[in-house]
TrEMBL record:
Top-level enzyme category: transferase
Compartment(s): Cell membrane
Protein name listed in UniProt: Phosphatidate cytidylyltransferase
Pathway involvement of the protein, from the record: Lipid metabolism; Phospholipid metabolism; CDP-diacylglycerol biosynthesis; CDP-diacylglycerol from sn-glycerol 3-phosphate: step 3/3
Keywords attached to this entry: Cell membrane, Lipid biosynthesis, Lipid metabolism, Membrane, Nucleotidyltransferase, Phospholipid biosynthesis, Phospholipid metabolism, Transferase, Transmembrane, Transmembrane helix
This protein's record includes keyword Transferase: yes
């Protein structure tokens, strides 16, 4: 427990400094986190480290970040389409020449590059376009959902939410997490107005809570399918980056999809 707390404090400090400063400092941090998360994904699905497919995946993630880097002026949609098509062709073609590299692994690797890449791209984009307070309020809402679901689930949880993926999560805990996040969201809106209105606050927090919980379950399903307990050991007491930030990825993709970023 002590190791977990100390690690948590160190992580918070290392994250909050570039997050507070913003600009390209946080964009580069988001890119680094995305690359580490992809590295962990390759460990989960047993892709050879530092091989061709490994580096192509990392290059794909870097290319997705290009429009956010300050020294470039690139149209995001053009990069997005070209990166997607190139990755599809490369990962599928690679199955021809390596019998151990299955279509399943090719698909998982492709999804991983896009899911991780876009998740962190939209996190960085939110910090740039929506600002410090807005993005911080979203992150607090994710934390409130996780904490609320944990404590409500322990106290009142009876019905399993997704027993085949995460046996400890309950429907009561999930609903409790949403309610706690909504309450904290309204308190934040009354205190320092991170969002445009109370209506937007309720809508945004609800989306954040749902997407965050789905993101957590998706990563649990991935690890269970490949029979892995943690995504990595980078963070003592916490597992890997994917273990800690799986909710974030789905949240920021979800907010982008509904037009809130």
């Amino acid at each position: 427990m002590k190791e977990r707390v100390i690690t948590g404090i160190i992580i918070l400090i290392l994250f909050m400094i570039p997050f507070y400063v913003g600009a390209f400092w946080f964009t580069y941090l988001a890119l680094i986190l995305a690359i580490i998360a992809f590295h962990e994904l390759t460990t989960i699905i047993k892709i050879r480290k530092y091989g061709t497919k490994y580096f192509v995946g990392i290059i794909g993630i870097v290319l997705l970040f290009l429009p956010l880097l300050p020294f470039l002026n690139v149209t995001f949609e053009i990069i997005q389409i070209k990166v997607l098509l190139a990755l599809v062709l490369f990962f599928l073609t690679s199955t021809i020449f390596n019998i151990e590299y299955s279509i399943e692994k090719a698909g998982t690797l492709l999804i991983g590059v896009l899911y991780i890449g876009f998740g962190f791209v939209f996190l960085a984009e939110a910090r740039i376009d929506e600002g410090l307070i807005w993005t911080l309020a979203v992150l607090i809402s994710i934390w409130a959902t996780d904490s609320g679901a944990y404590f409500v689930g322990r106290k009142f949880g009876k019905r399993k939410l997704a027993p085949n993926v995460s046996p400890n999560k309950t429907i009561e805990g999930s609903v409790g997490g949403i309610i706690i996040a909504l309450i904290i969201g309204l308190v934040m809106q009354a205190s320092f107005h991170p969002f445009a209105s109370y209506g937007e606050t309720l809508l945004l927090i609800f989306i954040v809570s749902i997407a965050g919980q789905v993101g957590d379950l998706v990563e649990s399903a991935l690890k269970r399918h490949f029979k892995v307990k943690d995504s990595g050991k980078l963070l003592p007491g916490h597992g890997g980056i994917l273990d800690r930030l799986d909710s974030w990825i789905f949240v920021f993709i979800g907010l982008k999809l509904v037009g809130l970023i």
